[in-house]
Design goal:
This protein is mainly beta. Helix content is 8%, strand content 29%.
């Protein structure tokens, strides 16, 4: 085993390898996957001098601990959290040097859900369909991290950023999502459509990388028959029979048989990936179908 590797000391609740995903394979039934908070992952890579396609680690709520086998530069972005190296406080949102054998600890998220850990050279697990991302729905890509696992690293290709700390957008206290109605908003009553774009929902604890489930006003259907399965896109807001909207995220299924009442603007989806259970959700309708 090369010394360009990371040993996982503490895997955390759910830590996965993610990059920019594998879009373009929906016709094969393969979701796009990739980092839920793409801007945070991209910033982490820039801070350590990686290219935009380098794979990072995405933690969920309680962080992780890592021991590099060689000297590396790391950066932690996304959900604000306490960062330490060998028990000593280190910067969040800035390049940090970790010596071989040292322990980087990414603590629990203070706000938001997901932190991103970039390491100089990137995580170089074997790609599948052009991506190193873990896909929890299809099972493609590397398995979620476990204690004791070893992750290979690539050779550094750039110089880390020379900044004290990089500004980042904070996780949302309220999730406001721009949404274009359709293609199946006509499957709902006029009152349900009004409630969809004027009511307040909450993020459900059942949310995951597949989608943000919500609780709140029930959206009643105007049509009760079954809808044949059709293609699903990132950001689609599907409404199951219980009437509670589900916002599809990166590991979403590529087809579905429940009607889609609207599609969320792509630029608003990173915030959805950082919304904690109980976060208020408002859908703001925009004019026109299918575009922004």
């Amino acid at each position: 085993m090369t010394d360009r590797a990371l040993s996982v000391v503490r895997a955390g609740a759910l830590t996965t390898v993610q990059d920019r995903g594998r879009p373009g394979h929906a016709h094969l039934g393969v979701p796009r996957s990739g980092a839920l908070d793409g801007p945070a992952a991209a910033l982490a890579n820039r801070l350590v001098g990686n290219g935009p396609d380098a794979a990072v680690l995405e933690t969920t709520l309680d962080g992780c601990s890592l021991r590099p086998r060689s000297d590396v530069t790391v950066a932690v972005t996304g959900a604000p959290c306490r960062v330490t190296v060998d028990g000593r406080p280190a910067a969040w949102g800035a390049p940090v040097r970790v010596r071989a054998g040292g322990v980087l600890d990414v603590g629990p998220a203070v706000l938001g859900v997901r932190a991103y850990v970039a390491v100089s050279g990137g995580v170089t697990v074997e790609p599948v369909l052009g991506s190193r991302s873990t896909d929890l729905l299809s099972g493609l890509g590397p398995a979620p991290l476990t204690d004791g696992a070893v992750l290979p690293l690539g050779a550094p290709t750039g110089v880390h950023a020379r900044v004290d700390v990089a500004p980042q957008v904070g996780p949302p206290a309220e999730l406001v999502l721009r949404v274009a109605l359709g293609p199946r908003d006509d499957w709902f009553t006029a009152g349900a459509v009004r409630r969809f774009v004027s009511g307040v929902f909450q993020v459900s604890p059942a949310s995951n990388r597949i989608g943000v489930r919500t609780t709140g006003p029930v959206l009643e259907r105007a049509q009760g028959e079954e809808l044949p399965s059709e293609g699903m896109v990132w950001g689609a807001v599907q409404v199951p029979p219980a009437g509670m909207p589900v916002i599809f995220l990166a590991d979403h299924p590529t087809t579905g048989g429940y009607p889609v009442i609207g599609v969320v603007h792509a630029a608003d989806l990173p915030a959805a990936g950082q919304a904690r259970p109980g976060t208020p959700v408002r859908f703001v309708g925009v004019r026109g179908r299918g575009g922004f």
